[in-house]
Design goal:
Number of domains: 1
Radius of gyration: 17 Å
Shape: globular
Organism: Actinomadura soli
Helix content: 25-40%
CATH superfamily: Vaccinia Virus protein VP39
Low-confidence stretches: none
Number of strands: 7
Order of helices and strands: HHHEHEHEEHEHHEE
Mean pLDDT: 91
Strand content: 15-25%
Protein name: Methyltransferase domain-containing protein
Distance between the termini: 46 Å
Number of helices: 8
CATH architecture: 3-Layer(aba) Sandwich
Keywords: Methyltransferase, Transferase
Largest sheet: 7 strands, mixed
Strand order of the largest sheet: 3-2-1-4-5-7-6
GO molecular function, one term: methyltransferase activity
C-alpha cells in the first residue's frame, strides 16, 4: 500500500498519536506516496461529472491537503483557484506543486470567505469532522459561494456487511474511538460517521439544494448501483 518513498511504520505511529494538525504536518512531505491521497480516478470522474455544469469562475478546494483537487479545478475554472487547509505542512507541499494557485491556512469550520467562489470541491475530508461539526463546515462553504454557486464532493456507497471492507472500516473506527478515549490530543478520522442521508440533511440545513449523480467510471456494486456518487449542493441564485 505504501511506496518506498512513503512513511515508515514509526512515522505513521507518531502521526497516529498526534493531533490532526500536527499529524498532517509530519506526514505532509510523504503524503502523496501513501494510499490516503485521493486517487486520480476519483478526481477525473468528478471533473467529468462537473464539466457539463461549467465552466465556472473561481474555484475553492476545501481541506485541500497537498492540492490534489487542483486536478479538478484547473480545467473547469476560468478565474482564480484557491485551496484552504489548516495544516501548514500540507499547504507547503501544495504550494510547491501548484505555484499558480492561491493557498490559505484556516480552520474550515470558520472559513474566511464571503461570496468569493462559484465552485467548491472537497475530497476525502468529511471523516475528519464529527457529525456535530458538519453544520458549521457546510455553513461556511455556503457563505463562501456566490449566489448560484455549487459545492461538489464524491461519496462512496457503504460496503455490504458481508464484505471485508465493511469489517475493516468498522474496526478502524472502533480503534480510533478507543484511541481517542485514552489519548490526548484526539485524532479525528472516522469512515462511518458521514452517511449520505445525514450529509444531505446537514447540507439542506445550511441552505443548499442537494442532488446526486452517479460516477459510473468508478465501478458498480453487485446490485448494479454506482459505487460512488457525486454530491451536488447548489446555493440558491437569489441568496445574498
Amino acid at each position: 500500500m505504501f511506496s518506498a518513498q512513503g512513511p515508515s511504520l514509526r512515522e505513521l505511529a507518531i502521526q497516529a498519536l498526534s493531533s490532526v494538525e500536527d499529524g498532517y504536518d509530519r506526514l505532509a512531505p510523504k503524503f502523496d506516496h501513501t494510499p490516503f491521497r485521493t486517487p486520480e480516478s476519483v478526481l477525473d470522474a468528478t471533473a467529468d461529472a462537473l464539466r457539463p455544469l461549467g465552466p465556472f469562475g473561481e474555484g475553492l478546494d476545501v481541506c485541500c491537503g497537498t492540492g490534489a483537487g487542483m486536478r479538478v479545478l484547473q480545467p473547469l475554472c476560468e478565474g482564480r483557484i484557491c485551496g484552504v487547509d489548516f495544516s501548514s505542512g500540507m499547504l507547503a507541499q501544495a504550494r510547491g506543486a501548484h505555484p499558480d494557485a492561491e493557498w490559505v491556512r484556516a480552520d474550515v469550520r470558520a472559513l474566511p470567505f464571503d461570496e468569493g467562489f462559484d465552485l467548491a470541491v472537497s475530497f476525502g475530508a468529511l471523516g475528519h469532522f464529527l457529525p456535530a461539526e458538519r453544520p458549521a463546515l457546510f455553513a461556511g462553504v455556503h457563505r463562501a459561494l456566490r449566489p448560484g454557486g455549487l459545492f461538489a464532493f464524491p461519496v462512496g456507497a457503504p460496503p455490504p456487511i458481508a464484505s471485508g471492507w465493511y469489517w475493516t472500516l468498522l474496526g478502524f473506527d472502533l480503534a480510533m474511538r478507543l484511541r481517542n478515549a485514552v489519548w490526548r490530543p484526539p485524532f479525528v478520522m472516522y469512515y462511518r460517521t458521514c452517511p449520505l442521508h445525514a450529509v444531505r440533511d446537514d447540507l439542506a440545513g445550511a441552505g443548499f439544494t442537494v442532488t446526486t449523480t452517479p460516477l459510473p467510471s468508478l465501478g458498480r456494486r453487485a446490485d448494479g448501483s454506482a459505487r460512488y456518487r457525486l454530491v451536488l449542493a447548489r446555493k440558491a441564485a437569489n441568496v445574498r
